Amino acid sequence: MISEIPILIECILFEDFRGKLIKPISIENQKIIPYLFNDTYISISKKNVFRGLHYQEKEFAQEKLFTLIKGEVKFYCLNIDDYDVYYSFNLQVNDKLTLYVPKGWATGFHTLGEENIVYFCSNQKYSPNSEISINFSIIPELKNMNFIISDKDNFIKD
């Protein structure tokens, strides 16, 4: 049974004449996110791409942290024990927020900006044999949507 839910956490933002530095993980928020994230990724996507819904099972279950670098993205977190329970989070760069997703949630995102850059990390190494992909249409608001999507993300895996 899942005890934690996905949450938004305020990032620390440093801004000056050169631009911005975003600090999604810090000593200040380690009480909220007490885990070491060791696999990191950067996803660059066009408008109207859907990536996910994914999770890893058993000993490879992951906790994830997503930070939007550019664009606008709507994130979806689906409870893997109860597909009727899900959360969605619409993030824009200026929100200064990062999304923490605990174990037990499949994650996916829909890109809304022209160019979207998402930085994300997980506390567990990626294991292709432990990955489960769930068709996005299981979420009611996505049921009749047409996305740019990979074959891997467009079917239900048994």
Strand order of the largest sheet: 1-9-6-11-4
Gross morphology:
globular
By helix and strand content, what is the structural category? mainly beta
- Number of helical regions: 0
The value of Rg in angstroms is: 15 Å
Q: Number of DSSP strands?
A: 12
Order of helices and strands: EEEEEEEEEEEE
Instruction: Characterize the biggest β-sheet.
Output: 5 strands, antiparallel
Give the proportion of residues in helices. Answer: under 10%
pLDDT under 50 segments (min length 5)?
Answer: none
Topology:
Layout: E1 7-10, E2 12-16, E3 19-23, E4 39-46, E5 50-56, E6 64-70, E7 72-79, E8 86-92, E9 97-101, E10 105-111, E11 115-122, E12 131-133
Antiparallel strand pairs: 1-9, 2-3, 4-11, 5-10, 5-12, 6-9, 6-11, 7-8, 7-10
Describe the structure.
This protein has 158 residues and is mainly β. The protein has no helices and twelve strands. The chain has strands spanning 7-10, 12-16, 19-23, 39-46, 50-56, 64-70, 72-79, 86-92, 97-101, 105-111, 115-122, 131-133. The protein has a five-stranded antiparallel β-sheet, with no helix packed on it.
List keywords for this structure.
158 residues; mainly beta; five-stranded antiparallel sheet; globular
Task: Provide a concise account of the structure shown.
The chain has 158 residues and is mainly beta. Helices cover 0% and strands 47% of the residues.
